[in-house]
Specification:
With about 120 residues, the protein is mainly beta. The chain has one helix and eleven strands. The strands form two sheets. Strands 2, 4, 5, 6, 9, 10 and 11 form a seven-stranded mixed beta sheet that branches.
């Protein structure tokens, strides 16, 4: 069983930065890909970024602004978010999958989510 716990969300002004953390249980990195998704009110859950081994993938809308990284010693995945925009406002979830994919349906384990609000 994989457990994922997000933290680091909050309220920030447009142009600001936040770093989200996803604390994972056990040997998650040796077995799973970890991804970040987000869901805004009234919208479908959207892929943001994922990391598996040395490979990463981003949705076009965050490319160049967000960076996903891992700290294996801490079993933690980070999402550094810079140059935030109001349209980045959403609940952000981390999730674990067996393959590097942008499809939410392929992720078997999910955290509870953390709210990110970007004011204009």
């Amino acid at each position: 069983q994989v457990q994922l716990v997000e933290s680091g969300g909050g309220l920030v002004q447009a142009g600001g930065s936040l770093r989200l953390s996803c604390a994972t249980s056990g040997r998650t990195f040796s077995t799973y890909v970890v991804g970040w998704f987000r869901q805004a009110p009234g919208k479908e859950r959207e892929f943001v970024a994922a990391v598996g081994g040395r490979s990463t993938r981003y949705v076009d809308s965050v490319q160049g602004r967000f960076t996903i990284s891992t700290d294996n010693a801490k079993n933690t995945v980070y999402l550094q978010m810079n140059s935030l925009k109001p349209e980045d406002t959403a609940v952000y979830y981390c999730a674990a999958a067996g393959v590097l994919t942008t499809r939410a349906a392929m992720y078997d384990y999910w955290g509870q989510g953390t709210q990110v609000t970007v004011s204009s």
